Amino acid sequence: MGKLLLLDIDGTLLNSHKQLPTSAREALAKARAQGHELAIATGRAPFMFEELRKDLNIDTYISFNGQYIVHKGKTIHKEALNTETLQSITEFAGQRDHPLVYMNELKMVSSIDFHPDIDESIKSLKFPHPQTEEGFHSDNEIYQALVFCEESEERQYHETFKEVDFVRWHRVSCDILPKGGSKASGIEQLIRATGHSIEDTIAFGDGLNDLQMMEIAGISVAMANGHEKTKAIASHVTSHVDEDGLAKAFSHFGLV
């Protein structure tokens, strides 16, 4: 059995222009031909990378940082945020003028018609500012929410809502996840379906939401453009994503 390759999207698969480098595309194809299994591991919602996974013919993925997992096109795990807790966070954030975005596997909805922090962070993913929809977060399973505040304002959320995790991914935005939810827990769920051992996993990432995944994987690879904390715990640091970093890492570990 080959390796299970767990691939973050932003800053790992996609370069700083949100494009897939030709070298990465070729490396993925060669690795698959060598018998390795490809899986995406991302904080994004499934609808946000549907085009990419179809383009790469990848039907196994960990999304929402572990809250929604699909193996070969079949959903094998999903865990939504508690509705009452989410409503409490919504009210708490509203008192501080911090907007939220709510996401399920199909779409995202904003708590406010427009906010510059939402616009800045969501546009960094090449998506437009989401629209509002009355009752969306109370009438649907929400697998991940985003609260928009600066890092200096984040601690109050950790201290007040200990039943969930807040993971910063952008200058003005934090993911809100069920307690203990992470790409690491997603890997544990996924390997039960694939038959791989944890030693057969190689995780590729760059951000703070990749830390736990990289700690649990058999081998971890950080991109040179990654966060310093991510690079510090990685088994190997490859080149910048804009300098064929993913392809170079595949070559380094003999995957191609």
- Report how far the terminal alpha carbons are from each other: 15 Å
Backbone CA Rg = 18 Å
Sheet with most strands: 8 strands, mixed
Give the count of structural domains: 2
Mean pLDDT: 96
What does this 3D model show about the protein?
The protein is an alpha/beta fold and 256 residues long. The chain has 2 domains: 4-78 and 181-252, HAD superfamily/HAD-like (Rossmann fold, 3-Layer(aba) Sandwich); 83-178, Hypothetical Protein, Haloacid Dehalogenase-like Hydrolase, Chain: A, domain 2. Helix content is 32%, strand content 22%. It contains 10 helices and 13 strands. The protein has helices spanning 22-33, 50-56, 83-94, 116-123, 136-139, 155-160, 183-194, 211-216, 228-233, 245-252; strands spanning 4-7, 37-41, 61-63, 68-71, 74-78, 100-103, 108-110, 144-147, 164-170, 173-178, 201-205, 219-222, 236-237. The strands form 2 sheets. Strands 5-4-3-2-1-11-12-13 form an 8-stranded mixed beta sheet. β11 (201-205), α8 and β12 form a beta-alpha-beta unit. The radius of gyration is 18 Å and the shape is globular. The two termini are 15 Å apart.
Brief description of this entry?
The chain has about 260 residues and is of the alpha/beta class. The protein has helices at about 20-35, 50-55, 85-95, 115-125, 135-140, 155-160, 185-195, 210-215, 230-235, 245-250; strands spanning about 5, 35-40, 60-65, 70, 75-80, 100-105, 110, 145, 165-170, 175-180, 200-205, 220, 235. It folds into 2 domains: about 5-80 and about 180-250, HAD superfamily/HAD-like (Rossmann fold); about 85-180, Hypothetical Protein, Haloacid Dehalogenase-like Hydrolase, Chain: A, domain 2 (2-Layer Sandwich).
